[in-house]
Every structure is written in structure tokens, then in C-alpha cells.
Amino acid sequence: MAEIKIDAKCLQCPGPIVQLFNAARNAKSGDIIVVEATDRGFYKDVQAWCRKTGNELISLEDGDVIVARVKKA
User: Fold this and answer.
1) Is 13 a catalytic residue?
2) Which one of 1, 10, 13, 73 is the catalytic residue?
3) Per residue in 7-59, pLDDT tens?
4) DSSP readout, 13-72?
């Protein structure tokens, strides 16, 4: 299992989700993708994306920087 880090700070919608999508496409099942974003919309977008794709949202921190940890299904 690998951990993939994505710095999506300063990207506006849909940038952070596109970065997550591309990383998930190349990740193996069980890999953890950590996304850091400053776009406020990413907080809700990542939750909806995980529900839609079946990937597991392990944690989601809301602050100046939103940090999402997603486990590839």
C-alpha cells in the first residue's frame, strides 16, 4: 500500500477533484491518496466524489487547508 500526496492548494474547482481523479486512476486498490486543497468547495466535492466512485473517505479535515485522505477501492 502506497501513500500518494497531492498538493492542490491554490487550485480552483474543479482542479482538486481532477487531481484526485487522476491519482485514483493510477493508484492500486488499498493505496491512500492525501489531497491538500484551499478551494472551499472541495470539502463537499470530495465527499460526493467518494460516494459516487465507491472509494473510502478515511478522514476530512476542514481548516485553512482542507486535507482529505481517500482509500482507493
Assistant:
1) yes
2) 13
3) 999 999 999 999 999 999 999 999 999 999 999 999 999 999 999 999 999 99
4) TTHHHHHHHHHHHHSPTT-EEEEEE--TTHHHHHHHHHHHHT-EEEEEE-SSSEEEEEE-
